[in-house]
Amino acid sequence: MLAVQARARGIPVAVLLAEFAETMRREELYRSEREAARVDAQRGDARAEDDEWGTALGDGID
User: Fold this and answer.
1) Tell me, what's the pLDDT at 52?
2) In a domain, 51, yes or no
3) DSSP 18-58
4) N or C: which terminus of the chain has fewer CB atoms within 10 Å of its end residue's CB?
């Protein structure tokens, strides 16, 4: 199956595997970020810190 896909795309199987690995790495990064955001959203102290940063960023002081 991998060889067929690689041949159809005109690339070596090793390149196809490297692309798959990169895709999986990115998906894991996004999953990890979503999980961290979910955990932070459930924590009151993290929400309060986000609110403080939002206020600081919008106060017009650079």
Assistant:
1) 86
2) no
3) HHHHHHHHHHHHHHHHHHHHHHHHH-HHHHHHHHHHHHHHT
4) C
